[in-house]
Amino acid sequence: DIQMTQSPASLSASLGETVTIECLASEDIYSNLAWYQQKPGKSPQLLIYYANSLNDGVPSRFSGSGSGTQYSLKINSLQSEDVSIYFCQQNYDSPPTFGAGTKLELK
Amino acid sequence: QVQLKESGPGLVQPSETLSLTCTVSGFSLTSYSVSWVRQPSGKGPEWMGRMWYDGDTAYNSALKSRLSISRDTSKNQVFLKMNSLQTDDTGTYYCTRDLSTTVVTPFDYWGQGVMVTVSS
Fold first, then answer.
1. What's A94's DSSP letter?
2. Distance (Å, rounded) from C-alpha B27 to C-alpha B90?
3. Is the CB of residue B50 less than 8 Å from the CB of residue B95?
4. Chain A, chain B: beta-carbon pairs less than 8 Å apart
5. Contacts of A69 (CB under 8 A, 6+ apart)
6. pLDDT tens profile A3-60
7. Cα A67 to chain center, whole Å?
8. B20 DSSP 8-state letter
9. What is the distance in angstroms between the Cα of B108 and the nearest Cα belonging to chain A?
10. Element (H or E) spanning B105, and its range?
C-alpha cells in the first residue's frame, strides 16, 4: 500500500495568516491527490482533487499544488472557520490511503 | 441534493458481526459507486471497500476475509457486513460517494457516520 505522510501533525496560526500543509507519498502518485477538511464532530469534506482542482463551493483561499511524491495545501488569509483537521488521500493505486492528518488551530 | 446516511448498532460484542446500512438519495446507485470508509478516533480514515455502480465489489485486502458489501438498488441502500469484530475495529464508519468511476477516486460526499464500539 502507498504510505502518506503529512506534516506538521499540528499547526497553530493567527487569523489572516497563510498556512501550508505538506503531504509526502511513498511513491509517485502522478497528481492523484485529494485534500479533505474535517471540522470537529463532522465527517470529512472534499476540498481539492487531482492535486489542484477546487471542489464545488470551496473558497478560493484554498489551493493545492505538487507533483510526484510531494504535495501541499495552502490556505490564504486564515479564517476562524478553517479550524479543522486536514487529511490528504492518494487516488493513484488501490487501496486509496490517507495521511494521519494535520490539526490546525488558531493562535 | 445528494445525501448518504448510515444506520446500524452502536455497540457490538467482540467476535460478533457488524451490519450497517447506507441509505442514499439524490443520485442513483447504478450511476455512482459507494465506498465504506472507517476512522478510528484521532486517526486517519481507512478505505474498506466499494460497491461499484455496475454491481461489482472491491475490498481492501487487509479486510477482505471478513468483509462483505452488497446493495438493494430498489431501496437505494448499500450494506456492509464484517465478521469477527475486535476492539481495534472500534471507530466511526462512513459511507461515501465516489467522485468518478475510475478504479481509485476521491470521495465527494460523505454520510454523517455511525460510531461503532466493539466491547463486551
1. S
2. 30
3. no
4. 53
5. A24, A25, A26, A27, A28, A29
6. 999 999 999 999 999 999 999 999 999 999 999 999 999 999 999 999 999 999 999 9
7. 14
8. E
9. 6
10. none
C-alpha cell at B23: 441509505
> Do A93 and B112 count as a contact with CB atoms less than 8 A apart?
no
Please identify among residues 90-119 of chain B the ones whose CB lies closer than 8 Å to any CB of chain A.
Answer: 94, 99, 102-108, 110-113
Interface residue of A94, A97, A102, A103 to substitute, partner B, most B CBs within 10 Å: A94
The owner of cell 498556512 is A19
* HSE-up (13 A, CA, CB side) for residue B64: 7
pLDDT score recorded for residue A25: 98
User: Please, which residues bridge with residue A46 across strands?
Assistant: A36
Please choose, from the candidates B30, B22, B25, the residue with its C-alpha nearest in 3D space to the C-alpha of residue B1: B25
Contacts of A85 in chain B (CB under 8 A): none
Concatenating the DSSP letter of every residue in B27-82 gives: S-TTTS-EEEEEE-TTS--EEEEEE-TTS-EEE-TTTTTTEEEEEEGGGTEEEEEE
Nearest C-alpha neighbor of B69 from the set B91, B87, B43, B95: B95
Cα(B89)–Cα(B40) distance, rounded to whole angstroms? Answer: 8
Q: Which residue of A has its CA nearest to B110?
A: A43
